[in-house]
């Protein structure tokens, strides 16, 4: 069964870094409204808004203190209603970012909960007695250190899988689940297009058995959520699932509509880290492994599941710096990576600035970084004997602030992001890389993305066609064919800066119509640095 979100393209906004309308150095909702025409022109259908709810910003809004109100820095509830109206008028839907695994420690549920053991909100969170005078077990926080925090007032530990200002909600408590349904319905009634669900796979955790992801009750809770909120309402719901396998993904995205629309899984994103170690422990990407992972996810669904396509989000480094080349071949490699992804089956997500080929940042001083994950890791590793230089190398490669420097709108002061002092420094390459230049330049990365989106809209084969990997053993080239009835679309990408020769099977050699390419005329049997081609075969 066809769904509207099968052929949609989603654009993720990290509001803090998108556009500041009032000069306080922090992006805001009015700033987003000012840029809706820019997004409309790009051709996207949906905006995923990273959290805009009330928050003390320990984790930039992923620590929510009120789910039914807007963060002061971002504006008011009226601004949010206006944004929804203005977006809807342009045919753009808005996904809210539902962070339901944890709240802020400043949420009223937690301030109550920590007061006393018999407080009615006590069981909204996960409290445990000490074991032999220390933490109940050795569960760790994603943001370094133990996941258990001692609370003097009632002499118990509470669980926080993220920062200690992000206590985990107790999903076993039916009252917690009802509160969350209520918040979700509040936003559904305001006319949103759906939800992106933060770390959804943690909801079924069993902390005493050290089970965090994919716990036994997870899918039961999601189905209950579905029945009580968005079920039957034709909204887009996408779950952030770091540890999904195709089997698990089929449950989440079952087309019977009992759970979510699609998964957002990260198997490809983990390929440049040493298996079993942390994300900071780097290894070079092996293209063959990347091809195998894509091949698996492109072929695992037979109308029984749906996947997202992405290179970037607010948690991962900029793709052109990561697997492209952000120097001599920045433009070519950004376009190649875009071609590779946008020819695949699934719903593509573009992260703000990706459409400009924005790059990673290298701050010299650790104090220029703002992300709690990076700052905690820095202290932790320094204590554990790593050198400053080693740690900075990991941060340059993987730090989340790579994706969080302000959007580069123009070559004016602060890249046109703010008239004040930006909350995090602007990447100095904004004079060269910015939206103003690219919107008017027909050869820009921006206009290339625009064309890729058009191609998806005009060719059903890209949305629904079968996928077949070509040249699976080739170490330099990523090539595939999509087929729907008599239509075939071939995509051929040189993943590296060296020119390569190649031979496709005879049947795909004939280029009937080149739909897009990042060089001029193609050469027979040869690909230039980062060359990408998409053609009807
Ligand atoms: C990724 C989230 C991340 C948040 C975390 C806590 O895992 O998108 O940005 O920090 O989930 O809410």
3D structure, described in words:
The two termini are 27 Å apart. The protein folds into three domains: 7-101 and 174-449, Alpha-Beta Barrel (TIM Barrel), CATH 3.20.20; 108-159, Oligo-1,6-glucosidase, domain 2, CATH 3.90.400; 464-536, Golgi alpha-mannosidase II (Immunoglobulin-like). With 537 residues, it is of the alpha/beta class. The protein has helices at residues 29-34, 36-42, 77-89, 108-113, 174-188, 218-228, 246-252, 287-299, 319-322, 330-342, 372-383, 388-398, 435-440, 445-458, 460-464; strands spanning 10-13, 46-49, 53-54, 66-70, 93-98, 127-128, 148-151, 156-159, 194-197, 236-241, 262-265, 308-309, 347-351, 466-470, 477-484, 487-494, 500-501, 513-517, 526-527, 532-536. Helix 10 (330-342) runs parallel beside helix 14 and helix 11 runs antiparallel to helix 12. It has 15 helices and 20 strands. The protein has an eight-stranded parallel sheet, with helices on one face. The protein has a five-stranded antiparallel sheet with strand order 14-15-16-20-18. A three-stranded antiparallel sheet has the order 6-8-7, with no helix packed on it. The protein is globular and about 75 Å long. The site of D-glucose has 9 residues, from loops.
């Amino acid at each position: 069964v066809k769904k509207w979100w099968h052929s949609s393209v989603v654009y993720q906004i990290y509001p803090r870094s998108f556009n500041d309308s009032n000069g306080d150095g922090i992006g805001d909702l009015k700033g987003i409204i000012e840029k809706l025409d820019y997004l409309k022109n790009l051709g996207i259908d949906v905006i995923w808004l990273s959290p805009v709810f009330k928050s003390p910003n320990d984790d930039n809004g992923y620590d929510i203190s009120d789910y039914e109100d807007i963060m002061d820095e971002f504006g008011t509830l009226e601004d949010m209603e206006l944004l929804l109206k203005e977006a809807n008028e342009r045919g753009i839907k808005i996904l809210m970012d539902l962070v339901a695994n944890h709240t802020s420690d400043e949420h009223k549920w937690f301030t109550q909960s920590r007061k006393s053991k018999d407080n009615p909100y006590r069981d909204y969170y996960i409290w445990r007695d000490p074991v032999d005078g220390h933490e109940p077990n050795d569960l760790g926080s994603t943001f370094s250190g133990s996941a258990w925090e001692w609370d003097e007032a009632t002499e118990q530990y509470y669980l926080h899988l993220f920062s200690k200002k992000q206590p985990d909600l107790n999903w076993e408590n039916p009252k917690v689940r009802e509160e969350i349904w209520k918040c979700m319905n509040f936003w559904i009634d305001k006319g949103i297009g759906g939800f992106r669900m933060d770390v959804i796979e943690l909801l079924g955790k069993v902390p005493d058995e050290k089970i965090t992801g994919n716990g036994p009750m997870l899918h039961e809770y999601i189905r209950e959520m579905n029945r009580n909120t968005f079920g039957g309402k034709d909204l887009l719901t996408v779950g952030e699932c770091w540890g999904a396998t195709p089997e698990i993904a089929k449950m989440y995205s079952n087309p019977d509509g009992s759970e979510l629309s699609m998964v957002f899984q990260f198997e490809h994103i983990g390929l440049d880290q040493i298996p079993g170690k942390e994300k900071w422990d780097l290894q070079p990407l092996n293209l063959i492994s990347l091809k195998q992972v894509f091949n698996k996810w492109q072929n695992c669904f037979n109308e029984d599941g749906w996947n997202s396509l992405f290179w970037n989000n607010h948690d991962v480094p900029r793709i052109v710096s990561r697997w492209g080349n952000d120097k001599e071949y920045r433009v070519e490699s950004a376009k190649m990576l875009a071609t590779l992804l946008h020819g695949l089956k699934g719903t593509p997500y573009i992260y703000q600035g990706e459409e400009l080929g924005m790059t990673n940042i290298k701050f010299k001083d650790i104090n220029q970084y703002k992300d709690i994950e990076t700052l905690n890791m820095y202290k932790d590793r320094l204590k554990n004997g790593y050198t400053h230089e080693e740690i900075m190398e990991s941060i340059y490669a993987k730090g989340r602030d790579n994706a969080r420097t302000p959007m580069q709108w123009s070559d004016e002061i602060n890249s046109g992001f703010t008239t004040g002092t930006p909350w995090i420094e602007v990447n100095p390459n904004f004079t060269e890389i910015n939206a103003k230049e690219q919107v008017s330049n027909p050869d820009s990365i921006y206009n290339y993305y625009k064309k890729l989106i058009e191609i998806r809209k005009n060719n059903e084969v890209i949305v629904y066609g079968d996928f077949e990997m070509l040249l699976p053993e080739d170490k330099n080239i990523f090539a595939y064919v999509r087929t729907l009835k008599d239509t075939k679309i071939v995509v051929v990408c040189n993943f590296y800066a060296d020119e390569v020769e190649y031979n496709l099977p005879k049947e795909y050699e004939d280029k009937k119509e080149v739909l897009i390419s990042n060089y001029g005329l193609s050469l027979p049997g040869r690909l230039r640095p980062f060359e990408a081609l998409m053609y009807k075969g």
